[in-house]
Amino acid sequence: MGKGGEQSQEVKVAHSATFLKKKARLNAMETEQLRKWATAYGVKCADDRETLLEELAAYADGIVDTDRPANNLPLAPPKFTLTDIKNAIPQHCFERNVWISLYHLMSDCLLVAVLGYLATWIGNNTIFPDWSTYILWPIYWYAQGSVLTGVWVMSHECGHQAFSESEFINNVFGTIFHSVLLVPYHSWRITHGKHHSNTGSCENDEVFAPASRSDWANEMLRETPIAQLWGIFVMLTFGWMPGYLVYNATGPAKYRGQDVNHFSPNAAFFSKEDYWLIVQTDIAFFIALAGLIYAFYTFGFGKVFFYYIVPYMITNLHLVLITYLQHTDVFVPHFRSKEWNWLRGAMCTVDRSFGPVLDHTFHHITDTHVCHHIFSKMPFYHAKEATEAIKKVIGPYYLKDDTPIMKALWRSFSCCQFVEDAGEIVFYKNVKQ
Length: 433
Hints:
Layout: H1 3-26, H2 31-41, H3 49-56, H4 60-63, H5 82-87, H6 98-119, H7 133-159, H8 167-180, H9 185-197, H10 225-244, H11 275-299, H12 301-327, E1 334-335, H13 342-346, H14 356-361, H15 369-374, H16 383-394, H17 405-415, E2 425-426
Antiparallel strand pairs: 1-2
Helix pairs in contact: 2-3, 6-7, 7-8, 7-12, 8-11, 10-12, 10-17, 11-12
């Protein structure tokens, strides 16, 4: 047997050992519990225990996690309608007030300025000891990056036309503040809207289309803890730029081999009518980029790096972390064409709390995301009240996860690797059988 054949055999043996370990983790459960999980994951609910263990082994890490929600999203189509949900929400929750939105946006801008001013005192030896810079700069970076995430969310409100009732005002403020954060506003707005229109679809979700078994490379190293830690690092640092904006890295298979650059007016996900909007967006983006280059020239690379670039990277980290965990976990199904519809897809998202301070700083985009996906034009400052009303209607279809964020990230990245090539309702797996 050649060298390649030997390596393939080693991979199969290693996978077999992994598979047996997963079966062993489930073996502590009663047979009736296994049957309940089989029903929840839509797999063959066999009579004999051994078959149940084999069918559920690929989901074992998610099943045994005691921090995950007790239920998956129900597989049966919901009996309630969008109208039922809307009627349960107080009417004022749908009202958009530009002055309230401006208050929150200007509050964020003021806090950005205050943090920037306070940072000028870092390294002042007459006030702080020399070693304090190693503590104060990271505090500034994370605080400023978090507040800038709030600015990002306010621009996101503009993209959904939730900032005000005026499309012109929404697009003006969205263009300005997304450009300052080096985001191509209209390009993002268009593809993000398509994500909202196709959430949970294996074929058409613009951002979180799951990899299929046949797509997943047959490399054992991708399943090792070190490789997974490296993968998380790459995702959080490069997942937004250039990962998503230039390469559409997690987009659907239907775009493969096509132009998927958000800066290209001819990209596959834009229509002819979008052409000049993308050109306009590119002009705004490169004006902001030119301003950044001018700042480098005027103030020096080091100052701009410390005051803006590092917080900007923290903002991008938050953006990827938040959105990834909103749409990726062991209990969130994906639907193919025969089973998918907009409402089922809209509920394929998860509410998570990052703690009261960050939830407030992020304008509750983290802990009211289910509501946001169902009613995207609803302003964020009404979303908490609306969420409480929604929960009474959708019941078990409401997904909320209280798993600590870092543990949830590890679970999602290590367990959610691919879905089966066949099947109309599929869940992520993390073992090749």
